[in-house]
């Protein structure tokens, strides 16, 4: 009786003429599945619970026939194709109540170890199934998902299996429809349950280390061959096999360590230096003796510990003083210590007086046990006149291995203070003397420094004396042409002070030429009298010198001015001394210098036109 569809036929006859246009519907093919109303053409289902899984499509032949007319009973037919749509009216069902699976114990976590399937006769989304593991024995080691293509349940491994620990796992799996139709809830639960039994297969497995990572420590001064730790691996298979160990050479190229192949003990193979390498990281491989191909690997970390090489010392040179009016038990200084070693966490320093100072009634050391100590007075009435300085040896000891200690001498100065303890007259800095450096040693060092300074001064003095001697010229020296006089002459008429013959003899001038191998320091331009036309003697002399300089290839390239003191015989120019020179330069005529060539161009410019002479251009 469920409504399917309605068909309608039309008749072209006149509906007012009898029953010619009246149509009656009937089913010619399609019974007993469907029925049709003769008047309205409504098609309905004729059988209850039609099952799509039995038959999906139906062809129904419908006839429409009029009721009268001269021809009487004319009819027409049509075919209706009816397809049943699926509804979720069938629950999933397992084909069997128990599934058996065999799984190797070496199966990887996350891998699929088996499949089970429940059957749902519905189609499309109504046939989609969801699988779940019922909590119980072994269910926490496995997981199940649905294959969307085949609607199978895929069982996966969540945790590793071990045959030696457990051989069989049993749990239940529930299959249910993912999309439910509320119209069919009364049919019953749309789910089914089956049991899964998994048998773990024993496999030949590699050895298993007792730890995932091994961490060890060793001191940097450990002798070669010292055992610093061990690794352990076991064969957990039923037929247990012995295990052999070796170091992965790729991780320890320099072979700083060795391992016993049987016992697994690790020993040093080289001297270790923490300053060079503070940590080593390498791998140990374990293999079964019965099957060497089955191996396992573990990382080993070895930390090199610093050896306590340096003793602790007082951190800074303290300036310690005590008042003359100090009271017993008064703290006059808080001291701390430092260590050049890399101090470990929790490093502690202890302070005490040396054995020889502990019996003296002056000062004591109070260790506060927090890496600091206080210097305290043991008496009162310290007197500067009796003793101004006290030397207090303090022993500082660390807590590292091996224990190191040092004795540090502190200098305590007695000062005059007021009633409040403020220092009034103490401006000498306290000193800190390391053990082994006495006052005698300091005096010896200062004496050596003084001796070295004296040697250096003597050496410098001898060097200067030697340099002065080398500056003294000998008689054979070609440069010995400078004569020094300490008295001033009396002018041209004074001929007793020196031999003036050299100035009057041209041959002497020839033999004692002015040196031309060095450049004159300064050009001096003497004032001369005007040239005399009839003075042929001096003119010939100058021309002769001019010609010699023109043809001399060894003459220096610079301009030079040579002054000749020879006046010649009977010269009308008389004396060349500047004392008798004309009072003004305008009275002199130097125009003839321009006729002497380019070598005397500078002289011609200087003594020619006064306006054209520029002293800055003279070289």
TrEMBL record:
It is found in: Cell membrane. Residues 1-94, 95-209, 210-314, 314-432 form the Cadherin domain. The chain crosses the membrane at residues 441-462. The keyword Transmembrane helix applies. GO terms for molecular function: beta-catenin binding; cadherin binding; calcium ion binding. GO terms for cellular component: adherens junction; catenin complex. InterPro entries: Cadherin (IPR039808), Cadherin-like_dom (IPR002126), Cadherin-like_sf (IPR015919), Cadherin_CS (IPR020894), Cadherin_Y-type_LIR (IPR000233), Catenin-bd_sf (IPR027397). Gene3D superfamilies: Cadherins, TCF3-CBD (Catenin binding domain). One of its GO terms (biological process) is cell-cell junction assembly. It is a single-pass type I membrane protein. Cadherins are calcium-dependent cell adhesion proteins. They preferentially interact with themselves in a homophilic manner in connecting cells; cadherins may thus contribute to the sorting of heterogeneous cell types. This is CAD12 protein. It comes from Ceuthmochares aereus. The gene is Cdh12.
